[in-house]
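4.2 Preliminary Data

To establish feasibility before requesting continued support, the project team ran the inverse folding procedure on a target of 131 residues. The structure was first converted into the token representation described in Section 3, and no sequence information of any kind was made available to the design step. The complete token record follows.
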């Protein structure tokens, strides 16, 4: 990789991270990331073969996370997160340590049945709803 290609890659990374943080007009991160990826490919910082190999390698993980996001959205629409958060809040009776124990138990159960990635995606709304 040339110095120019490396510099362009770094600039694109900074721009994409900035875009993801700011999210102008609520646009999805892909609006910034996809053009940046095309620029990185265009300047030769990454070959198309290498990019395709990475897509192949990461596709199962991305598909799994996308499925978990769909499940999470459906659970939220059905009120599961509000219900679970309300139950944990009521059982903890305002004691933070007790609430933390309930969150740990629920997280362990979800992790045992699904996965750690699923736990993060599914329980984050529960913890926010409870807090």
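Position-by-position output of the design step:
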């Amino acid at each position: 990789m040339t110095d120019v290609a490396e510099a362009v890659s770094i600039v694109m990374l900074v721009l994409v991270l900035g875009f993801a943080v700011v999210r102008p007009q609520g646009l999805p991160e892909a609006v910034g990331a996809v053009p940046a990826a095309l620029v990185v490919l265009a300047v030769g910082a990454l070959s198309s073969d290498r990019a395709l190999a990475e897509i192949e390698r990461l596709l199962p993980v991305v598909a799994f996370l996308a499925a978990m996001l769909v499940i999470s959205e459906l659970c939220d629409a059905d009120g599961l997160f509000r219900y679970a958060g309300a139950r944990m809040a009521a059982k903890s009776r305002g004691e933070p340590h007790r609430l933390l124990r309930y969150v740990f138990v629920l997280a362990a159960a979800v992790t045992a049945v699904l996965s750690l990635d699923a736990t993060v995606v599914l329980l984050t709304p529960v913890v926010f709803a409870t807090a």
